[in-house]
Design goal:
Mean pLDDT: 92
Largest sheet: 5 strands, mixed
Number of helices: 13
CATH topology of the largest domain: Adenylosuccinate Synthetase, Chain A, domain 3
Bound molecules: guanosine-5'-diphosphate
Helix content: 25-40%
Distance between the termini: 31 Å
Number of strands: 19
Structural class: alpha/beta
Radius of gyration: 22 Å
Length: 441
């Protein structure tokens, strides 16, 4: 399951829905920058560093090898879930996941401030949770892994090296207490930390269903997103395989999750952004505020150029379209079908290399008929009767998305509640996508 836009597509809710049939749920990238919100009968829960499988009896939630984990925050999250009686499944943490340190948080803020000083327009608006610097150190081979926390000498030696390379950073906490804290926290987390590769290979070999829960989203991929306004990992289907250790040949379905409109947090191009009253309406009705940072999200309209790109990059076999209730009661719903470039040419497919070029395109909209408000009676009918109770204009909207992307819509989210997702049936074989022109800008 992969986020198809800029994040916050309600992946938490869709993976919780899909987890009902899964024996394992694996997070393969990201860390404490993630906030997957799930509305349970017991109240809301926001998961940061654990996979939603931990919420279900009989399910194993794996924090996978590709993640960067802040151990102290992970322990807090686990204790809080235990306190609320929500840690019902099993939690497993990969020994290969990297440790995100306080120094990474300091460095994250320092780097983004530096960008702002050098060129205010270049600030990325990161979450300042240290994700980027933690991945830098992973690839720079300075990193400490979760499994290393049981070896105090390794922790100490790596910290000293790291502090030597990062001596320019202000306010680094002293090494001794930090090393002690890491080792002590590591000892308390040790029952969860183990190799996950063989466990997952065996699960796949037995035919157990394994759900890879995407975090962050396609257009934030470090290589294929709107660089440099991206995250530091690969939130794509290929990245999910790499970050879990499951071979690509074992993948059979790829569900792309997209909102019926679009949002973006932080800086970066957003062609269909609506800064007017309708954008404000989406923010208010959709509750578009970050689950982790509380930051307001920028809002706009569904962008099929970007969705086609995400579909082709990830090989989506079906789509989950969420938050359709937010648009209920609107006369028409704008959907971007192509862009016009500054030189007048049109584009339906592909992403330009430079984010500034994407910022200059003019979206071309089709205005589709709106559907009624999702009041309680309609929700009740959909719960009882399934997809056939969805209003006709909404079904036409979903069909339009399927036709334009070549990917069938399989799930629809019509409210935040756990049961407010409807399955449209098995995806039909994808129709032939319409002719697509390559990016020529
Ligand atoms: P994620 O990071 O992709 O899981 O997304 P977030 O959790 O940040 O944002 C999704 C928000 O929308 C959460 O508050 C969800 O409870 C809520 N939500 C999920 N699905 C729906 C839906 O179909 N309709 C509405 N109105 N809200 C939803």
């Amino acid at each position: 399951m992969i986020g198809a836009q800029f994040g916050d597509e309600a992946k938490g809710k869709i993976s919780d829905f899909l987890a009902a049939d899964a024996r394992y749920v694996v997070r393969s990238a990201g860390g404490p920058n993630t906030g997957h919100t799930i509305h349970l009968p017991e109240g809301n829960v926001v998961l940061h560093q654990v996979a939603c499988g931990v919420l279900r009896h009989g399910c194993v939630g794996v924090s996978g090898p590709g993640m960067v984990l802040q151990p102290m925050k992970l322990e807090e999250e686990v204790l809080e879930l235990q306190r609320r009686g929500l840690l019902r499944g099993e939690l497993v943490v990969s020994e290969r996941a990297h440790v995100l340190l306080p120094v990474h948080e300091i460095e994250d803020a320092w780097q983004d401030d530096l960008r702002a000083v050098k060129n205010p327009g270049a600030q990325l608006g990161t979450t300042r949770r240290g994700i980027g610097p933690a991945y830098e150190d992973r690839y720079g081979r300075w990193g400490i892994r979760m499994g290393d926390l049981s070896r105090p000498a390794v922790v100490r030696e790596r910290l000293e090296l790291l502090y030597a390379v990062k001596a320019h950073l202000p306010g680094l906490p002293p090494i001794d207490p930090l090393a002690a804290q890491l080792v002590e926290t590591g000892a308390r987390l040790a029952p969860y930390v183990r190799p996950t590769e063989t466990m997952l290979w065996d699960a796949v070999a037995r035919g157990d269903s394994v759900l890879l829960e995407g975090a962050q989203s396609t257009l934030l991929d470090v290589d294929f997103g709107t660089y440099p306004y991206v995250t530091s990992s690969h939130p794509t289907s290929a990245g999910a395989m790499m970050g879990s250790g499951i071979p690509p040949t074992e993948l059979d379905t790829v569900v792309g999750v997209a909102k019926a409109y679009c949002t973006r947090v932080g800086a970066g191009p957003f062609p269909t952004e609506d800064s007017g009253p309708r954008g404000e309406f989406l923010r208010r009705v959709g509750g578009e505020r970050g689950a982790t940072t509380g930051r307001e999200r920028r809002t706009g309209w569904l962008d099929l150029v970007l969705l086609r790109y995400a579909a082709r990059l990830n090989g989506f076999t079906s789509l989950a379209i969420t938050k359709v209730d937010v648009l209920g009661g609107e006369d028409t719903v704008p959907v971007c079908v192509q862009y016009v470039l500054p030189d007048g040419t049109t584009v339906r497919d592909g992403l330009p290399l430079d984010a500034s070029d994407l910022a200059k395109v003019q979206p071309v909209y089709e205005r589709l008929d709106g559907w009624p408000l999702f009041h309680e009676r309609l929700k009740e009918r959909v719960r009882r009767e399934g997809a056939s109770a969805l209003p006709v204009p909404l079904r036409q909207f979903l069909e339009f998305i399927a036709q334009e992307t070549g990917v069938p819509v399989e799930y629809v989210g019509y409210g935040p509640g756990r049961e407010e997702t409807v399955w449209l049936g098995p995806p039909a074989p994808p129709g032939r996508p319409r002719a697509m022109t390559a990016w020529s800008g």
